Amino acid sequence: MSSLNNFIPNIKPKTELELPQGFEYVSNFLTQKEADNLFEQLVKEIEWEEREIKMFGKVYMQPRLIKWFGDKAYSYSKQEFQAQRMPQIVEDLREKVQEYTGAKCNSVLINYYRNEQDSMGKHSDDEKELGVNPTIISISVGEEREFVIINKLDKSRIKLNLEHGSLLIMNKDSQHKYWHELPKSRTKKGGRINLTFRYIY
Prior knowledge:
alpha+beta; Jelly Rolls; six-stranded antiparallel sheet; 3 helices; about 15% helix; globular
């Protein structure tokens, strides 16, 4: 039985760092125990995929493990994902995310950053399947990692540490005005998992 079934979020929006319009951060969306259980279950139960990417004519392995669940197929950066039913613990979390945000989510991309060398490059979630102004909701569990928001116009940067059990919402025109990335860390890091819920049309 999932530990999220009787979940009541202890919500306290982050106020000490001013984020751009379209971004909202909640540091303690999950309790310590809920976040611990979620991380442990996902590490053990998900059939993680390590995929190839092609850059500048060369083939590399993506610097993270991934898994896709959703009602519909999805593609980004020439990666194709087939529809696949969410496991119960992810489904429970999806329901809680929808309750808090009011956003409808029918899919989730899960990234597993195994250590400080795993990363996600600068990008926007602006695929046509996501609609005009998509809502992307990210839950982070495991090691705290730095998340960078980059203004597309003036290239200014805002750095945010994504904490264990935190929630980050990106909506409105955030994907049009900003890039975001999760860079490699200069200090040793353990594993981190983030679940990015979204709606695929």
